[in-house]
Write a structure and sequence with these properties.
By secondary structure, the chain is an alpha+beta fold. The chain folds into two domains: 53 residues, 2-Layer Sandwich (Signal recognition particle alu RNA binding heterodimer, srp9/1); 62 residues, 2,3-Dihydroxybiphenyl 1,2-Dioxygenase, domain 1 (Roll), CATH 3.10.180. The chain is 18% helix and 31% strand. It contains three helices and ten strands, in the order ββαβαββββαβββ. The strands form three sheets. Strands 3-6-5-4 form a four-stranded mixed beta sheet, with helices on one face. The protein has a four-stranded mixed beta sheet with strand order 7-10-9-8, with no helix packed on it. A two-stranded antiparallel sheet has the order 1-2. The chain starts with a strand and ends in a 6-residue tail after the last strand.
């Protein structure tokens, strides 16, 4: 029998660990003081100023930090979530397949889907899909001025 190891305060063996490798721990088994969440996501852009301005003008973000020694900017949504915009090396790659491996989109949560969608449409935003309702959720995919894929989303009920 393998050596016992504590997991969320419960002992289990190395064999148990191998068998349960793909299972998530129960929700109460994390230390909220250790990992709080995702603080920001970074996007590399050939023109960080232009991309930051796009998020301000189209999604009501605010520029909350600008580096004094580089072109890096942070933009912040009203819920406190942030995007760091750094200078890229070269132009953005060609459009990506929405199902290709890796990060594919940023979901933008809204409280009035129809109003935000119509506002973006009026500003000439390029949509990748038609708006749809699925299980009470409203969603549509679109791109920012650099071609990054965004997901406009209003959930009827938050995920657990």
């Amino acid at each position: 029998m393998g050596q016992a190891i504590a997991f969320c305060g419960l002992p289990f063996t190395a064999e148990d660990r191998r068998q349960k490798a793909n299972r998530l721990p129960p929700p109460h088994c994390y230390n909220p003081g250790m990992v709080k969440g995702i603080e920001h996501t970074a996007i590399a852009s050939p023109d960080p100023h232009k991309l930051a301005r796009w998020y301000v003008e189209h999604l009501d973000f605010v520029v909350n930090y600008q580096s004094a020694s580089s072109k890096t900017k942070f933009v912040k949504a009203s819920d406190g979530s942030m995007i760091e915009i750094i200078e890229s090396r070269g132009a953005p790659p060609a459009a990506l397949d929405m199902k290709a491996a890796g990060l594919r989109h940023l979901a933008i949560a809204v409280t009035d889907f129809d109003a935000v969608y119509e506002g973006l449409k009026g500003k000439g935003v390029s949509f990748l899909t038609e708006p749809e309702k699925k299980g009470g959720n409203s969603l549509v995919f679109f791109t920012d001025c650099d071609g990054n894929i965004l997901h406009l989303l209003q959930r009827e009920k938050p995920l657990p």
